[in-house]
């Protein structure tokens, strides 16, 4: 019975992971292009209050980051000292270590990678929305803080195999 549950977890994770990552990258590109068009339209508008250069370039950066989400994730991972990732399913746990549960453990790590991509996407969207009109300086700084936490946590989840290796090496354990 336990083997059936592990197989179900593996099958569920493989289907959700591949379509989820593809969806998030496509959604990020589409949202980035739409927001860029709205930003350029708002900057060109003469009826509304003119947009400040800082807000314009901040919005431009956020839109470009949404369009190039895989590159942004790899760049943020490089800041932590990790090599780039290919966003494939994770094959970290070996059957010699976990036996029959190795496939299920890899499936859970793959779902964590998917959640990490979602966190980074949400964080970049929060960066974009923090410059909206009506935000006070306090609420905008709170949005930037929350977005930074989401991007860092998402990057850690995307690079979870490298993070596990670094954590095990730092405390002196070897599997």
Description:
The protein is built from 7 helices and no strands. It has a single domain, classed as I/LWEQ domain (Up-down Bundle), CATH 1.20.1410. The protein is elongated and about 65 Å long. The mean pLDDT is 86. It has 175 residues and is mainly alpha-helical.
- The fold-level CATH name is I/LWEQ domain
How many domain units? 1
Gross geometry:
elongated
**Count of DSSP H/I helices:** 7
Number of E-type strands: 0
User: What is the oligomer described by this structure?
Assistant: single chain
Order of helices and strands: HHHHHHH
Helix-strand makeup class: mainly alpha
CATH class descriptor: Mainly Alpha
What integer value in Å does the Rg equal? 20 Å
Mean pLDDT: 86
β content, as a range?
under 5%
Largest sheet: none
**What gap, in angstroms, lies between the N and C termini?**
28 Å
Supply the CATH architecture.
Up-down Bundle
Helix residue percentage: over 70%
Low-pLDDT runs of 5+ residues are none
Write the layout of secondary structure elements.
Elements: H1 2-44, H2 53-67, H3 69-79, H4 95-98, H5 102-129, H6 137-158, H7 160-171
Which descriptors apply to this entry?
175 residues, mainly alpha, I/LWEQ domain, 7 helices
Brief digest:
This protein is 77% helix and 0% strand. It is built from seven helices and no strands.
């Amino acid at each position: 019975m336990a083997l059936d549950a592990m197989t179900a977890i593996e099958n569920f994770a493989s289907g959700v992971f591949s379509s989820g990552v593809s969806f998030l990258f496509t959604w990020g590109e589409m949202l980035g292009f739409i927001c860029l068009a709205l930003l350029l339209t708002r900057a060109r508008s003469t009826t509304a209050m003119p947009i400040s250069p800082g807000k314009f370039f901040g919005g431009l950066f956020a839109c470009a980051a949404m369009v190039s989400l895989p590159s942004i994730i790899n760049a943020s991972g490089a800041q932590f000292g990790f090599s780039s990732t290919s966003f494939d399913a994770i094959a970290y746990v070996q059957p010699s270590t976990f036996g029959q549960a190795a496939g299920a453990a890899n499936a859970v790590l793959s779902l964590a990678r998917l959640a990490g991509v979602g966190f980074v996407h949400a964080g970049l969207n929060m960066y974009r929305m923090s410059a909206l009109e009506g935000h006070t300086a306090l609420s905008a700084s709170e949005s930037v803080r929350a977005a930074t936490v989401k991007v860092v946590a998402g990057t850690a989840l995307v690079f979870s195999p490298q993070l596990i290796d670094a954590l095990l090496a730092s405390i002196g354990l070897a599997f």
